[in-house]
Amino acid sequence: MTVTPAQHATPRAPTRRARLPWQRVPIWALMLLACFLSVVPFYLMFVWASHPSAEVFTFPPHLWFGDAFARNWQGLMQVTDGQAPRQFWNSLYIALISTLTTLFFCSLAGYAFAMYDFRGKGALFAFILGTMLIPPLVMDIPSFLVMNNVLHWVGQPRALWVPGMANAFGIFLMRQYISSALPRELIEAARMDGATEFGIYRQVVLPLIRPILATLGVVTFVGAWNNFKGALIMKLSEPDTMTLPLSLRRLGGGATNVNVDWGAIMMLVVITVIPLLIVFLLASRQVISGLTSGAVKD
Amino acid sequence: MSQRTPTSAPPRAPWSYTRFQQRFAPYLFVSPFFLLFAVFGLFPLLFSLFLAFHLWSPLDGIGNWKFVGFENFQLALGPTDMFWKSLKNTVWIGLLSGIPQHLVALPLAFIIHHSLRRFQGAFSTILFLPYITNAVAIAIVFATLYSERLGILNYLGGLVGLDPVRWLGDPNMVPYSVAAVVFWRYVGWNTVLYLSGLQAISEDVYEAATVDGANGWQKFWYITLPLLRPMMFYAFTLTIVGSMQLFEEPFMLLNDGGGSGGAGLTSAMHIFNTAFRDLDMGYASAMSWLLFLAIFALSMLNNYLFTRDGGNK
C-alpha cells in the first residue's frame, strides 16, 4: 500500500449523511479532552515558570500565571552560574549543524538512489535499509569506545553530530520523495545543457525538494536538540559544552529534591521546549504529511 | 566541458570528464553513508560482539581484555543479576503504555477521519505535539504532577475523596506512572500514523460496500481494518522497538536506579549503568546483544501475527 502526497490532497466526496448536531456532542467532547490532555503539560510548565519557586508546589496548585517570570530567569542564571544562555547556544549549535549536514548528505545520497542507474545500486540501498534494523542501543557502548579510545572526541560536540550526518532514515525519505516528485527528463535536460552532476543536484534538485528538506530538517533538529542519552554518554558536561537536557538532568534529576529552585528549573524546562514548539508549529503540516508518507511506502 | 584526447582504442568512446563524472557521481554521492557506517557502525558493532565474550573496562586500555566465553551471558540470564528483572520491567511498562496507545489511537484517528474531517490538520498538529517534545523536560513536569503531597494528581484525587497515591514511591505504582508518560508522548504519533493510513483508503471501496448494503460496523470490520493492516504493522513495530529501549523517561523520573525496589529499572538503564557507571563494558555489551535478541524476537512475533492469515481479518 502506498501513501503519496497527491492522495493526501485529493478531496473526498461527501458521501455520508449529515448527522444531527446532538450526535456530535460526544465526539467533540472526546476530541477536546484528547487535545486538552496533549496540551496541558505544556501549559503547566509555563504556569510554573511564572511563579516564585516556593509556590511551584503549593496546595491547592496554581493553575494560572503568576508574575515571577523575570525572577525565575535570575534564579536560573544563579543556579547555572550564568551558563544557561551558553547551554542554549550549545544545544542550538549541535542541532543546527546536525540539521545542515544531514540535509546535505542525505539528499545527495537519496538523489543518487532515485535518479541514477549504477552497478550495485539495489544492494547498496538494501544494505542501508538493513542498518535501520540495528537498535540504536546496541551501538551506545562501542561508539563510546570509538570516540573515547580511537578518535578522542569524548566531551566534544562533534561526537554527537558526525556519526548521524548520513543516516539510513534520511536517505530513505529523500529517495522516496525524489523518485516520486522529480521527473528523470528534468535531470536529462539539465545534463544536455552541460551542467555537471553536482551542479544538477545543487541547481535543479535542491530547489525542487524543499518540502521534504523541511520535513527531514525539523525531524533532525528536534532529534539533535533532544539528544539526552548521547550527550550523557559522550560527557558533554563541561561548562562550555553542556547542552540543555544535561543541564536539566543536573538541576531536576530524580525530582525528589525539594530544596532546589523549582521556579528556575521550570524556566529551564520552558527554554528547552520553546524552540521545539516554534520549529514544529512553523512546519507541522509539512512534517506530519512528510513523515507519514515515508512511513508505509516500500 | 573539458574534452581530453582519447587514450583508448578507437572503437571505445573518447574519455571525457563529462562521462567520467556521470559514471562516478552516484558512487561519490552515496559514499558518505558507507564511510560513516564503517567507522561508527560496522566497526563498533563487531567490537561490541567481541567485547560481549570478554571482561574489560575502558580503564584497562586497548588489548587488555580477558576472554570469558559465555560467562557474561550466563551471568545476565542467571538469578543473581538485575537483567532479567529489568527485562520484565521493560516488557511490563511496554505493555502498559503500548496497548492503550493503539487502543486509543485507532478510534481517535477513525473519528477524526470520518467525523471531523474539516479540522483534521488542527487536531493532528495538537495531538502530535507531545511527540516532538523533550523527554527530560517533560519528565520533570510529570514528576511535579506526581508529587505525593503537593502534586496536582493527588490534589484532583483528593477532591473526589481518594487517598494520596505514591506515584513514584510505591514500586507497584511505578510501572503505571512511567507508562502514563510514555503513553502521553506517543499516542498522538500513532493517531497520526493511523490517520494517514485511513486517508490512503479509497472512498470507492466504501461506496461499493454501501451499494452492497454493508452497515457502518461491517465497513469498519471488513474494509477499514484489513486495509489498515500495513500501517498497524508498522506502528506496532515502532512501538515494540521503542518500548524495549525505553530510557529517558524512567531515568529522569526515578533516577538511574529505577526508583524504590528498582521497579522502574529498564534494560536500557541497566545496560547504561553497567557500561558507563560500573565501566563493565564486556558485560554490558553482552546484555545489549541479549536485548537486541529480545527486540528481534518480539518483532518476529509481531510479523508472524500479522502475516499468519494472509490479509484476512
Report on this structure.
The complex is a heterodimer of chains A (298) and B (313). With 298 residues, chain A is mainly α. Chain A has helices at 5-9, 25-49, 69-79, 84-115, 121-131, 136-151, 158-161, 168-181, 184-192, 197-208, 210-225, 228-233, 244-252, 262-295. The longest helix of chain A has 34 residues, at 262-295. Chain A is globular. Chain B has 313 residues and is an all-alpha fold. Chain B contains 12 helices and 2 strands; from the N terminus they run H-E-E-H-H-H-H-H-H-H-H-H-H-H. Chain B has helices spanning 17-51, 71-77, 83-115, 120-128, 135-145, 152-159, 174-199, 203-211, 216-244, 248-254, 267-277, 281-307; strands at residues 54-55, 66-67. In chain B, strands 1-2 form a two-stranded antiparallel sheet. In chain B, helix 4 packs antiparallel against helix 7, helix 5 (135-145) crosses helix 10 (248-254) and helix 7 (174-199) crosses helix 9. The longest helix of chain B has 35 residues, at 17-51. Chain B starts with 16 loop residues before the first helix and ends in a 6-residue tail after the last helix. In chain B, 39% of the residues are buried. The chains are: A mainly alpha (298), B mainly alpha (313).
Which properties best describe this structure?
heterodimer; A: 298 residues; mainly alpha; 68% helix; globular; disordered N terminus; B: 313 residues; two-stranded antiparallel sheet; Sugar ABC transporter ATP-binding protein (chain A); MetI-like_sf (chain A); ATP binding (chain A); transmembrane helix (chain A); ATP-binding (chain A)
